[in-house]
Amino acid sequence: MDTPPNPLYMIKKASKPTNTSLVIITETYREHASYGLNKAQNDYIKSELKRDKKFISLNALDRLVCLVIADTKKDHYQSLESLRKTGSSICDALNAGAYTSVQIMNELGSADYSLALSEGMALGNYQFLRHKPSAKKLANTLKDIFVIDPKVKDAQLSALSVAIEATCMARDLVNEPVNLLNAEGLADAFKKMGKQSGFKVEVLNKARIRQLKMGGLLSVNQGSVDPPTFSIMEYKPKNAKNKKPYVLVGKGVVYDTGGLSLKPTPNSMDMMKCDMAGAAAVGCTLYAIAKAKLDVHVIGLVPATDNRPGFNAFAPGDIITMMDGSTVEMLNSDAEGRMILADALHYAKRYKPELVIDLATLTGAAMAAIGPYGIVCMGTASDEQKSKLAVSGLRMHERLVEFPLWDEYGELMKSDIADQKNIGGPLGGAITAGKFLQKFTDYPYMHFDIAGPAFLSGKDSYRGKGGTGYGVRLLFDFFSNL
């Protein structure tokens, strides 16, 4: 899958303002000759400030000038998120006016404000138009973001550019339909990313998957004409800080009909190309880590298939023998993600990992619980690991909400005729799914259910519409700050 280059992946530094569109971040506006504003324009800004306006936009015909009054007394993470959203709104205005470049001048004491506004602007500029030739005229005009802020370091801009690029790559993968991106296509995309950024990729084919007795992955694939894949990605620099690797596992259901337990609700299949958003997040996080040359050893595992009701599709009541030798009474083929993740989590044991994190669009229950506003998580990681992940979640506004993994939820998964069932009934659906997965682990583990925020049916600021790339920025920040 070819991804057209987006110049906004590379946000650049500038030393002084020029006569192009300008955004000023400040607490208190002071006239400055370098802004290039005349008396009437300055008077207009002052009059708006008297009305307690926190955002002022001035169309100067040849350029757009915006004043952003930041509330630095707010919680810092909330201030950054507010600036990301403002950046996305400014991006929309720049494209509406057919402007091609913008400069950001930060008069505040922290480089974080420049970076957040730039990030929101760049992510808000994302478009997925590769299959719509008629939309060439709708392509965004904004090409360049320049940051005028001596506090911003080149390394910070470089890291931000990598995070934006990887997030947009994940969005591209999620937005691609299954007729153009099946399991083999997803594996090929990972191979390409590995070559571009410098991580190793091994793809196991169906014969090798069968040799390994990955019963969960094979059972879900029984209804499909396309073979499954199991992608193993590894980035291991010579100076890795960690002796034991971190392992990321991504659900790679490239399309989900629900199988024989066909999805029943109207329009419920329309967005099911997004059921591999966890896999996209894992692959693109590896891409970002390798491209940024972080000194951390990370492995990515992605079991991939589509879930169809054809051929010899697995049926409710079937007993499936998993890779670890345990048995599962499959009572709902629409609870397929946990079946393929279970084999991958067992496979991860061979690495004796520091921590394993899986990302999956796993349950409607997670979405029902907290909506598209964060990630439902649960697991056995240490308090320190959980705390670091939570801080990255706050910093990137991909917030974590931890649910319990009490033993009682495991009782709901017991089967009369197998080691466990693949569903636990109507109560605590997000947790019983996590409890099912936990049984295939023997290491520190976190489960991230991204069903809510991974794909949006309407635009939400810089997250856009469609695939959001959720999880990439959080994980890249986590690994960058170890």
Structure summary:
The chain has 482 residues and is of the alpha/beta class. Helix content is 35%, strand content 20%. It has helices at residues 39-50, 76-96, 111-124, 154-175, 183-197, 206-211, 215-221, 277-291, 337-347, 364-370, 383-395, 407-411, 429-438, 472-480, and strands at residues 12-13, 21-26, 55-59, 64-69, 101-106, 144-148, 200-204, 229-235, 246-250, 252-256, 298-307, 318-321, 327-330, 355-360, 375-379, 400-402, 420-421, 445-449, 455-456, 466-467.
Distance between the termini: 32 Å
- Oligomer class: single chain
How many DSSP-defined strands?
20
Strand proportion: 15-25%
What is the CATH topology classification name of the largest domain?
Aminopeptidase
What proportion of the residues is helical, as a percent range? 25-40%
Helix/strand-derived category reads alpha/beta
Number of folding domains? 2
Largest sheet: 9 strands, mixed
Average of the residue pLDDT scores: 95
In CATH terms, the superfamily of the largest domain is Zn peptidases
Shape: elongated
CATH architecture of the largest domain: 3-Layer(aba) Sandwich
Uncertain parts? none
